[in-house]
Specification:
Elements lengths: L27 H17 L8 E3 L2 E3 L4 E5 L4 E5 L5 E4 L2 E2 L1 E4 L2 E5 L5 E9 L2 E9 L1 E2 L7 E2 L2 E2 L19 E5 L7 E3 L2 E2 L13 E3 L3 H16 L8 E4 L4 H6 L13 E5 L19 H17 L8 E5 L8 E5 L5 E3 L4
Parallel strand pairs: 3-10, 20-22
Antiparallel strand pairs: 1-2, 1-4, 4-8, 5-6, 5-9, 7-8, 9-10, 11-14, 12-13, 14-17, 15-16, 18-19, 19-21, 20-21
The protein binds calcium ion (2 copies).
Pfam family, one: Peptidase_M15_3
Protein name: Peptidase M15A C-terminal domain-containing protein
């Protein structure tokens, strides 16, 4: 099992998690007390065991984790008997065979969940989306989205358009989605004010945490990946000339690189004194090996190799489309 990490989401003073309507909203003084207590708990439990929770068919063993859900949805979370699922100290659903049936709140927003009991605990950022039906004339609350992705009639099970979008305000940018990835790393790069909107699939986060672990095991001391691009609205995706069915518009893709020296470009991973296609190939090979060895069909997907050019260093595209796809020049 993995170890627990600080739950930095709750420690961001400007951030205001949602509270169930059935509960009285705490005052400012009480809120500060709650945040302090959570910080103390996080510090004292920084090495606690994290239970394994099955989310949408994927085994998740890190904390914090993310669950993206539609308003009012009911979601089965698989876990050992004896574990509790709670929101703001109250049960967040009902027990059922093999785990809990989470009752997702009806209002979009961020809801902190906690799985506890036994030796450890897991924090889950439940992100309740704004339904895609709220997009009117290609805009969502003023944010330019463009048309829905076209899908793929031959493979509809792998190309369902996002059912909803996470509303992102400026004070959410540092939200720690997983131990090594923050919300800001996933936003579309189109220029706009806030709120912005984001499609995100849990499978991408599970892939990224696993892939980062594989990279670190190879001796590269990085806390996260450098990001070229993650989510793209269909409008932005078309603007930069990409194909309409890019996985970036489905919320399960990231173009990434290893940047331990922090210069914003791919590092010299093979330590041959050059930063070129060989370093891209090395990272792509780690991604392919991780996908193949994961044992999770849902973590299989695309791996694309991109050489450096005038705008960026080399990078690797990964996605969790559900079937293997490979492209780009290798050695
Ligand atoms: Ca670098
Ligand atoms: Ca090199």
């Amino acid at each position: 099992m993995a170890t627990s990490y600080s739950f930095t989401l709750m420690c961001t003073a400007r951030m205001r998690p949602r509270w169930p309507r059935s509960m009285r909203r705490p005052g400012e003084g009480e809120m500060r007390f709650v945040i302090c207590m959570i910080m103390i708990c996080c510090c004292t439990q920084a090495r606690a065991e994290v239970p394994v929770v099955q989310m949408r068919g994927l085994a998740v063993d890190f904390s914090p984790a993310v669950l993206v859900a539609s308003p009012g949805e009911r979601v089965h979370l698989g876990m050992e008997s004896g574990l509790e699922l709670s929101m703001a100290g109250a049960p967040a659903g009902v027990r059922e065979a093999g785990g809990w049936l989470l009752q997702v709140p009806a209002e979009p927003g961020l809801y902190p969940l906690r799985v506890s009991g036994g030796a450890g605990e897991m924090h889950i950022n439940l992100l309740v989306t704004v339904p895609a039906t709220a997009v009117v004339d290609g805009r969502l609350n003023g944010y330019r989205m463009g048309p829905a992705p076209p899908g793929n009639p031959r493979l509809p099970q792998f190309y369902s358009p996002p059912a909803g979008f996470i509303e992102v305000t400026e004070d959410m940018l540092d939200l720690q989605l997983t131990p090594h990835f923050q919300l800001r790393q996933f936003l579309c790069k189109q220029r706009s004010g806030y709120p912005k909107y984001l499609a995100l699939r849990e499978s991408l986060l599970v892939l990224l945490e696993g892939l980062l672990g594989a990279v670190r095991e190879r001796g590269y001391a990085v806390e996260t990946f450098g990001v070229i691009s993650a989510y793209r609205t269909p409008w932005y995706n078309r603007k930069i000339g990409n194909v309409a069915n890019s996985r970036h518009v489905y919320g399960d893709a990231m173009d990434l690189f290893v940047d331990a020296d922090g210069d914003g470009r791919m590092d010299d991973l093979n330590r041959d004194g050059r930063r070129d296609k060989a370093d891209v190939e090395l990272l792509a090979g780690i991604a392919e090996a991780y996908m193949a060895g994961s044992g999770e069909q849902r973590l299989h997907g695309g791996v694309g190799r991109y050489r450096k050019n005038a705008r960026h260093g080399g990078f690797v595209h990964v996605d969790t489309r559900g079937f293997s796809a490979r492209w780009g020049a290798s050695q």
